[in-house]
Design a protein that fits this description.
- The structure is a homodimer.
- Chain A is of the alpha/beta class.
- The first copy, chain A, has three domains: 296 residues, Rossmann fold (3-Layer(aba) Sandwich); 177 residues, Rossmann fold, CATH 3.40.50.970; 104 residues, 3-Layer(aba) Sandwich (Rossmann fold).
- Chain A has 22 helices and 16 strands.
- In chain A, the strands form three sheets. The first copy, chain A, has a six-stranded parallel beta sheet with strand order 7-6-8-9-11-10, sandwiched between helices.
- In chain A, β4, α9 and β5 form a beta-alpha-beta unit.
- In chain A, α2 crosses α9.
- The longest helix of chain A is centred in the middle third of the chain and has 21 residues.
- Chain A starts with a helix and ends with a helix.
- Chains A and B meet through α6, α7, α8, α14 and α15 of A and α6, α7, α8, α14 and α15 of B.
Chain lengths: 609, 609
């Protein structure tokens, strides 16, 4: 009875806010309110007074379009005010169209792009396993509500398969199974047997046919007991109570006058934002009391407190000269493995090529302290899992693949950039110098793709000094993800490069009285420097793609083994590659594109004369 | 016996070429030669004299790193010469590192980026179903060889789930199941039950434990009889015969001297490129004879011949003024539905928003003539399926989603651009004007991302005239994919825009004697034009992002509701958005970013004064 009242309060608050915004998704609010309430009242450990407590249960609304329901729930915990809820989807409001990462308000993650919430939840569960192995006092669950759409995205397969293999048993997914999606009913899109699907990847599958508190509660209890990750399929009716219930029409449009039908069904005679006192006191007696007690009981060990300190790093090692920057990078990663226990990561089945290997051995069920993660050939999943790990607390995840496959990860990189998570992307095999693998494996436009993402650091170091700078920037960053772009081939170490200068942004390698400036990064910096010396030109490193332009752009030439798209900002004249690559030995391809020193010098002479 | 000889020939030719290139993947060549030979000798209908015959069986090597094996097989059919094979992975060779789409040489698709070959095969199978429903003489299979890596990619789940739902029973996948991948053994990456996985999505699953011609042949026969798509898991030994067989070490490095061990195991006493006459005659008696007969028997109907004519289109319809460009686009799509039967497509569960709806009803098992494809929330899969459809013959696929989710499709867009496939991407909700859905749904950097992809047309029409031009460019394109970027909100139709001028590239809306030029596209063109008139400035449309710059860039201002990254090429001064978006009503967000007419005029005045 009181549960019903709470659920109705959630429903009415949500659809009122959606009506007021004249925008939003009533379908899920009416369909998933029961599971949301059951989770929060009966299971979730989350103290609104200490929303950043490291041992809280995490809740991710992967179906981010259900934001109104989340805000309504958070209102019942006192984290969101009535006026904030009433500003739903209005400009400059914390109750944004989709949930936006905001721990102080109890919003654990930005969600909305489908499938990624599931991936981030897997990352959170991985973080919990990893930290629990080190700090016995860590012990919590990760809950998710996901939609049919989430489960159609390939990333759901990638990340749940990863969770199954790695036995992330604290992960509990509730599926709002309403047989409807935006355009059509779900049975027009898929005929899959979810039970078999989940069993095939090592999940506990639990079906809840009745959308009741009791049934859902029992399912969650069962899930908690399982030694596998759990998937609870809960059959619901989209837009329950509306005249369009059970159809796609109620998915994404405000109810308008139809709200009256819902109110009638629910026997709701009060204002749309009314909260019965009984409901408040229900939550006081359940989640608030339970979580406050858990919080008070929690005693962080010295080691945990140590881990929680965010100590910056200085990379102080000698690295061999003239080696591939992926090799220098491998050395720095080893240094970080040794010196920072919150540094954790791996690659998408390419560690032997990218040299990105985490510390303390491979993470698996027998070695949960291992910080080398085998992500498998699941680049996008890897990106989302990294986001989840970074969301957990103080972990600094790094992930790695060939630069060209940053394409597969783009949506996760974007979300990291929106949330400003300090993730390090280690992208190797950075140009047509890759050679034999041919155009499918040769990045051209990827530099432009990443440089145009807001909040993302893009670093393309030229030698071991700049590599060290890159990792100091990446590791010490608090509000930016960082992409470090590295060569497969050996490079030439330069006397003129500087770790400290690189850390600040663009900098001069040669500054003289010439009118002309060569602007370059990464593996092309060595030839640019040689030619600069021979022709007495200025040379600037843009290996760190940040800073102020201090040279005369109208008398500058940019040189990169990549698209020239975007380079006009730095130089009127642009040398690069505006077609796809070729298959053949790297050096030959480099020559073919006239990036070898001799060709380059000719091209430069032609411009400046 | 003779089969064995053929298989050994394939193996030895492959690893010899890899050794000669000093680059390549011997593991799959030695492991998958038996299935390749079985398929080609016993089943594939493919006449090397008529490699473009529309009714040939299609074979996709999704595990593109097995290219040497494919080239060796094609050599045995007379399509690739010894000297071409010896140039494996050398510069300027058709035997590139990964297979490169080349129908004359029997290479059906560019592959390499894992998972996408599976998706393209699904597209080919969809095309076959669709065409068979219309032209009874069409009837062929689509075969794939895929690897463990292919199956870990999320796109494998997306596209196979689609194939299962749509009963694409002509699709037959052979899985080179060798329990090994690049970094490790596969059991460290996944514990999935493949049989359950495939059954869960409606596939026929067949296990072949013995890697023999007989067992594989029987499995293919069974698969052909099934009324579902089939997945044949064939247990193999990676690098069979090498001293490192069964380990990841033999995956991606040439064998070197270890080749002698293989030769010994296989009793091979001849040169590494030797082809026994018996083997040639085996293929003459099997695939060549069989396929030639099938080819000779094939009589295309008048209707099929009609379909095969690539008739260009002129869009000659009246479209209401001042409506959202997504709405104009919807009208043009209807026109194309009616006038071109090779126009086929749909959206990733967003047709009600993107207005991209194919003709003749929804494609499904009861309406295979339907040209409206329900792709589901599977953007990346949709992109790869479109590639497959375009690869089939003369289909012109269009696919659609919100512009921001082009991120999810990027790897497929890149592959379409590499292969130069004429696909139309319909991307709506193109800017922060989307509003309420917030930053996760508001494109910022996507324009730059796509404009920097080689071979890709990027069009952002401002009104219904430019929309018509965009579709004429897209549909009539033979060697380019085209992205059409459209608004959610209503726009203002302009007298000065021109369908014909837009088709040629950048063009002037106002050309007068001012030194200053405003450069703009899409929804920002209307305000730019108004201000241009008021201030007597030149105004250029870059809605079609092609052409020559004829204005003074140093006195130009670019105006787009998108990142300014890349805009310096067009204008020294750039107005745009270099942060993520905001949640709130579209108009308000537009004002917030100072893109409304009043703010814009102020900003322009500040620059030009």
């Amino acid at each position: 009875m009181i549960d019903k009242l709470a659920i109705n309060t959630l429903k009415i608050n949500s659809i009122s806010a959606i009506n007021e915004a004249n925008s939003g998704h009533p379908g899920i609010a009416l369909g998933a309110a029961t599971m949301m309430h059951t989770l929060f009242s009966k299971h979730l450990n989350f103290d609104p007074k200490n929303p950043k407590w490291i041992n809280r249960d995490r809740f991710i609304l992967s179906a981010g379009h259900g934001s109104a329901l989340l805000y309504s729930q958070l209102r019942l915990l006192g984290l969101i005010s009535k006026s904030e809820l009433k500003k739903f989807r209005k400009f400059n409001s914390i109750t944004a169209g989709h949930p936006e990462y905001n721990l102080n308000k109890g919003i654990e993650s930005t969600t909305g792009p489908l499938g990624q919430g599931l991936g981030m939840a897997v990352g959170l569960a991985l973080a919990e396993e990893s930290l629990r192995a080190k700090f016995k006092e860590i012990n919590h669950y990760v809950y998710v509500i996901c939609s049919d759409g989430d489960l159609q995205e390939g990333i759901s397969y990638e990340t749940l398969s990863f969770a199954g293999k790695n036995n992330l048993s604290k992960l509990i997914i509730m599926h709002d199974s309403n047989d409807c999606q935006l355009d059509t009913s779900t049975n027009l899109i898929t005929n899959e047997n979810l039970k078999l699907r989940m069993k095939s990847i090592g999940f506990e599958y639990i079906l809840v046919k009745k959308n009741t508190v009791k049934a859902i509660d029992e399912a969650i209890i069962k899930a908690k007991k399982s030694n596998k990750p759990s998937f609870i399929e809960i059959k619901t009716i989209i837009g329950h109570g509306s005249s369009k219930q059970g159809t796609s029409e109620v998915h994404g449009k405000p109810l308008g006058d139809d709200i009256e039908n819902v109110k009638k069904t629910l026997n709701w005679n009060r204002d749309g934002y009314y909260i019965p006192k009984k409901v408040i006191s229900l939550y006081e007696k359940t989640i608030l009391k339970r979580s406050r007690e858990a919080f008070n009981k929690f005693k962080p060990s010295k080691e945990l407190n140590e881990y929680l300190k965010n100590k910056p790093i200085k990379i102080e090692i000698e690295i061999e000269k003239n080696i591939a920057t992926r090799a220098s990078s491998g050395e720095v990663i080893k240094y970080l493995n040794k010196n920072r226990n919150n540094w954790i990561g791996g690659s998408a089945d390419l560690s032997s090529s990218t040299k990105a290997i985490g510390g303390d051995g491979i993470f698996n069920i027998n070695n949960k302290k291992g910080r080398h993660i085998l992500f498998g050939v699941r680049e996008f999943g890897m990106g989302a899992i990294a986001n989840g790990m970074a969301l957990h607390s103080n972990l600094k995840p790094f992930v790695s693949t060939f630069f060209v496959f940053s394409d597969y990860m783009k949506p996760a990189i974007r979300l990291a950039s929106i949330m400003k998570l300090p993730i390090t992307y280690v992208f190797t095999h950075d140009s047509i110098y890759v050679g034999e693998d041919g155009p499918t494996h040769e990045p051209i436009e990827q530099l432009a793709m990443l440089r145009s993402v807001p909040n993302l650091n893009v670093l393309r170091p030229s030698d071991e000094k700049e590599v060290k700078a890159a990792y100091e920037i990446a590791y010490n960053s608090k509000l930016n993800p960082t992409a470090i772009i590295l060569t497969r081939q050996n490079i030439i170490s330069l006397n003129e490069t500087s770790k400290n200068k690189m850390k600040k942004g663009y900098y001069n390698l040669i500054k003289n009285n010439s009118k002309w400036t060569l602007v370059s990064s990464g593996s092309e910096l060595a030839n640019s420097l040689k030619i600069g010396k021979e022709l007495n030109l200025n040379v600037v490193s843009i290996s760190n793609f940040n800073g102020n332009i201090t040279w005369d752009v109208s008398k500058a030439i940019s040189i990169e083994a990549a698209t020239t798209y975007g380079m006009n900002r730095f130089a009127k004249y642009n040398i690069g590659i505006n077609s796809f690559g070729e298959s053949g030995p790297g050096e030959k391809i480099y020559k073919h594109f006239k990036l070898d020193k001799e060709s380059l010098k000719k091209r430069i002479l032609k411009i400046i004369k």
